[in-house]
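Please fill in the sequence for the structure shown.

STRUCTURE ENCODING:
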C-alpha cells in the first residue's frame, strides 16, 4: 500500500469519524429534550472543550499508528510517499526524503486515491476564507455563525461544528443570491 499522508484516509481523520463525534453531543441533548420526563434534566449546553477532546480521540489525534499496525498485521507492506502510475502494473513512489522507489504489482494496481473538496466559483468565496471538510472537522472553537453551502451529506454533517447549535447555522441548499458571498473579510476563526 502506498500512502502519501496517513493510513485511514479522509474518513478516519477529516470526515466520518470526527464529524460524528462532533454531532453526537448535540444529538444526545436534543433526544433528551424530546422526552418530556427527561427534558427538565437538561439544563446546560454541550461542553465544547470535552466535545473537541472526544473528537480528537475519535480521530486518533491524527496519528495512524493503530491503522498501520492493523495493516501490517494483515500482511500488507506500507510505503509512505506519493505514488504515480509509471507503466503497466508499475507505480513510482516519491518517498518522503525525495528519493524514488518503483513497485511492480503481481496482478494489478488499485487506484483508490479518493477526492478533495472543490470550491465552487462563487464571487467572494475566496475573501471569506471558506472552510472545507478538513477545516470543519478539526475546528477547536465553536463558530459564532456558520453558513453551510450545500445541503448534501457532508454539508449536513458539517453543521456538527456548531455542537449544540451554539452557532447560528443555516444549511444553504439552494442558489446563492446574486453577487455571491459578501459582508465578511478575513478568515473564519478556527
Ligand atoms: C464530513 C464528512 C462526513 C462523512 N461521513 C461519512 C459517513 O458517516 N459514512 C460514510 O460511509 N461516508 C462518510 N463520508 C464519506 C467518506 O469519508 C468517503 O467516502 C471516504 O473517505 C472515501 O474513501 P476513499 O478511500 O475513496 O478516499 P480517501 O479517504 O480520500 O482516501 C484516499 C487516500 O489516498 C491517498 N492518496 C491520494 N493520492 C495519493 C497518491 N498519489 N499517492 C499516495 N497516496 C495517495 C490519500 O492521502 C488518502 O489517504 C463523509 C465525508 C465527509 C467529508
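FILLED IN BY: designer on duty
SEQUENCE:
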Amino acid at each position: 500500500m502506498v500512502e502519501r499522508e496517513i493510513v485511514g484516509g479522509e474518513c478516519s481523520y477529516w470526515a466520518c469519524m470526527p464529524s460524528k463525534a462532533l454531532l453526537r453531543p448535540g444529538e444526545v441533548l436534543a433526544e433528551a429534550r424530546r422526552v418530556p420526563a427527561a427534558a427538565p434534566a437538561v439544563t446546560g449546553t454541550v461542553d465544547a472543550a470535552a466535545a473537541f477532546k472526544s473528537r480528537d480521540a475519535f480521530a486518533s489525534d491524527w496519528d495512524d499508528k493503530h491503522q498501520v499496525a492493523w495493516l501490517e498485521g494483515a500482511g500488507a507492506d506500507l510505503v509512505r510517499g506519493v505514488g504515480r502510475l509509471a507503466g503497466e502494473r508499475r507505480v513510482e513512489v516519491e518517498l518522503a526524503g525525495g528519493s524514488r522507489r518503483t513497485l511492480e504489482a503481481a496482478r494489478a494496481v488499485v487506484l483508490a486515491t479518493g477526492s478533495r473538496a472543490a470550491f465552487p466559483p462563487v464571487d467572494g468565496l475566496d475573501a471569506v476564507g471558506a472552510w472545507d471538510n478538513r477545516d470543519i472537522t478539526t475546528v477547536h472553537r465553536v463558530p459564532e455563525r456558520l453558513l453551510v453551502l450545500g445541503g448534501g451529506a457532508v454539508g449536513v454533517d458539517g453543521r456538527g461544528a456548531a455542537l449544540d447549535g451554539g452557532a447560528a447555522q443555516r444549511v444553504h441548499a439552494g442558489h446563492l443570491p446574486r453577487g455571491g458571498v459578501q459582508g465578511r473579510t478575513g478568515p473564519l476563526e478556527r
